[in-house]
Amino acid sequence: MAAQQADLDLTVSGRPVSTHLEDIRAISERMVGHILETVAPCDTLPSDALGGDVAAVTRVCLKLAMQMLDGDEDIGSDFEQVETAAAQWAREGIPIDIIQHAIHEGFKLVFDLVLAKATTSDQESLVNVARRLMDIVDTIGSTVSVAYVRELKSVVSEHHTAVHTLTSALLGGNSTSTMARECGVPIADAYHVLAVHIPPHPDESNPKLDPKVVARRKLRRVQAELAIRCGERALSLLSIDGGTILLPVADFDDTALELLVKWLTDAAQAPVRATVVEAGLRRIPEAADEAHELLDMVQRLPFDSGLYRFNDMALEYQLTQPGPARDFLGSLLDPLEEYPEFLETLRTYIGTNLNRQRTARLMHVHTNTVDYRLKRIGQLIDFDPTQASGLWYLRSAMVARSHRDADAIPRRAAR
Questions:
Q1: What pLDDT was estimated at residue 286?
Q2: Could you list the residue range(s) of the whole structural domain that residue 408 is in?
Q3: With a threshold of 0.70, does the pTM exceed it?
Q4: Residue (of 14, 1, 27) closest to 125 by Cα position
Q5: What is the CATH number of the domain that holds 68?
Q6: Does one domain contain both 65 and 120?
Q7: Which of 149, 343, 383, 404 is 20–30 Å from 135 (CA)?
Q8: What is the pLDDT of residue 42?
C-alpha cells in the first residue's frame, strides 16, 4: 500500500508524471540543445558524438527516468547502454565534469517541463517528483562515474604499459618508429637521460606502519608529479627506490630539469638525487649507464638532494678511477677508522659545504664538539680540515675512499 501511495503521489494535473514525458524524441532533442547551450561549447564534444551517442544516451536516460518514475525496476539493459556510452566517452577523453553537468542540466530541463504542466494543487506531488528525480540523477550519475572511472583506469594501464615498453626499448637500443606509433607516444631526436635515486620515506622505518604501503604511496606521488609536470613527454621506468627518466632535450632546459628534481623531492617527501646525461637515440643505452654510474658516485658522497651533471662531478669522477692515486688518497683517512665519530663528522662537514652549525644540528651535538673533532682530525692525519689546502686533500680522500671500500666489498665476499 505504501508503494502504491508513493506512485499515486507522483501525479501532475491528475495524470502520472511520466505521461508528460512521453514524447521522448522531441524532449531528448531539446535536452541535447539545452546541453550545448549551457554545458560546453560545440568544439568540446565530437560532432559524431553529439549527433549519435549523446542523443541516443539522452533518450535512454529519459526512458529510464520515466520507468523509475513509474516504479519499474526492470531496467538493467538500459543501464548497460549508459555504462557502454560512459566507457566510450572515457576513451575519447571527454571530461567527466562535462558529462555529469550535462546529466544534471538534462534533468533540470525535465523538471521544468513537469512544472510547466503543474497546477496550484500539485505542490505536494511536485515535492515527491523532485525527490524521485534526485534519486534518479544520483543513480544514473553513479552508474556513469563507475563505468567512466573503470574504463579510464584501463586506458591509463594500457598507456602505462605502452610507455613502459617504449622506454625499455629505448634503454635497450631497440626502439623503432613503428613501435612508437603502436604505443601512441612520439619519439624525440635527443633526450636528457636522468638516473634518479628516491631514498626511503621517514615513515618506512616507522614500526607502526607497513613499509611496503608507505613506499608504494611515495612512488605513486612521484609518478603523479612527473605526469603533472611533464605529461606524455616523459618516458620513465621507476621503482620505489628510483630508476630512469627520459625527457626530450627540445622541451626541457637546465632550469626545467632542476625544478623537476625539486618537485619530485617534494612529492616523495624525501631528498631525491638525480644525474643527467644528454644523448641522441642511439646513445641512450650508453648514456643511461653513464648517468647511473655518476649517480652511484653521488650516493656514496655526502651530497644534498638535487640534480648533478658530469661537468659538476668531473674531478670526483676522476678520483674514483682505480690506480695508485686513488689508493693513496683513500688511505689518508685510515687513521680515523678507530674514531668513527670523527669520520662521520668530517663527512657531514664536507656535505654541508663546511657549515659548522648545520653539521652540529645534523649530528645532534654542540658546535664546540664539531670544532674539537675537526681539530683532532687535523692532528691525526696531518691535514687540517679548517684550512683550504688540507680540506682539498680530505675531500678528495673522502671520494677515493668511498669507491675503494665499495670495490673491496665484492672481493671480500667472493673469498
A1: 94
A2: 320-414
A3: no
A4: 14
A5: 1.10.490
A6: yes
A7: 149
A8: 43
